[in-house]
Amino acid sequence: MTPDPGEIAHVDEIVSRARRSIDDASSETDLREVENTFLGKRGELARAQRSLGQLDALQRREVGRHLNAARAQLEALLSERQTSLHAEARALRLAGERLDLTELVEVRRRGRLHVVERTRQQLEDVFVGMGFVVVEGPEVETDFHNFEALNMPIAHPARSMWDTLYVELGPPESVVLRTHTSPVQIRLMQRQGPPIYAVMPGRCYRRDTPDARHIPTFHQIEGLVVDHGISFGDLAGTIETFTTAYFGADIHSRLRPSYFPFTEPSAEYEITCTICQGAGCRTCSNTGWVELGGCGMVDPAVFEAVGVDAEEWTGFAFGFGIDRCAQMRHEMPDMRVLLENDVRVLERL
Length: 349
Ligand code: DAH
Known about the structure:
This protein is an alpha+beta fold.
C-alpha cells in the first residue's frame, strides 16, 4: 500500500503553520507558546503521531518518518529564532541601561536659609531646651519702650551709648528704629507678670559705621528671667551653660563689670575669639576676646516702670548679637559679608 497522501499533507500543513508562527513570534515567551502548540506533549505533531496507530505498517513507517523530519525541522527553526530573539532582547536591555557619562544634567539649585536666620533658630533651640519661651516685638519702637522704661529718661546721657535712628512720626524723636531688643522686655512685662523665662530675638538698627565686627542693621537675642530669689549666680550659670551648648567646650566665657542703665550690677559678656583661639587678631582687636553682649540684674527702676514689685521679685537680663554669634561660630573674620549677599560666600556658611 502507498502512504495515504492525506496524512502527509496534514503534516505539511502543520509545518507551514508552525513556520509562520515561529516567524511571527516577537518574544521568547511567544516562542515558547508556539513550541508548546506544535511540539508539546499535547501539541499538534504529537496528536498526528498518535493517529499513526490507525494506519497500516507501511503507511505508519512513511508518515512516521515524515513526522520525525517535520519535528527536526521545526526544532531547528525554533532554536534559531530563539537565539535571535534572545540577542534582540539583550540589545534592547543594554540600550536601556546605558549611562551617558558625558551628558550634562541640569542640577536644580536649592536655596536655603541665610546663616543669620539659621543662627537665630539654633539659638532659640538652645534656650527652648533650657526652658525659655520665645517672644517677639516690633522693630519700630516708641521712645518709652526703647529708652524711658529702661531707665533712660529724655536727655539722659546714657542714651548716647546708642546711635539712634529716629523715624519721622508723631512728636520729634518719639519713634525710633529700635536700637536693641531690650524694649521687648518692657512689652512682655507690661503684658504679663512674673514668673518669666523668655528670649526675644529680632532685628535692630544703629547709625553705626560698618567694620569687621559691626553692621548698622543687625540682630540681637534678649533674655529675661524674673522669679522669686533669682541671683547673679543664676545669670552667670545661664550664660555659661549657653556658651558651652552653642560654641562647644573649647570656648570660654567671661563677665566683666560694666554699666547699663537697666541693670544693676551690669556686666559685659565675652567669649574666646574663635578666629584666633584667643591669640589676638584683627577681628578681636588683638585682645583674644570678643564681646557678645551685656547682662545684669534687672534694675528696680525698670520693674517700677512696668509695675512689677521689686520687693517680691528679682531677675536678670541679657542681650547679645546673633550676627556676632554667627561670625564666631562660622569663623568669619569680617561681619560685612552678611550684608553683601555674595552667594559664593553664603553657600559656604
Ligand atoms: N541692650 C544692650 C545693648 O544693646 C545689651 C544688654 C545689656 C541687654 C544688658 C540686656 C542687659 O538685657 O541686661 O547693648
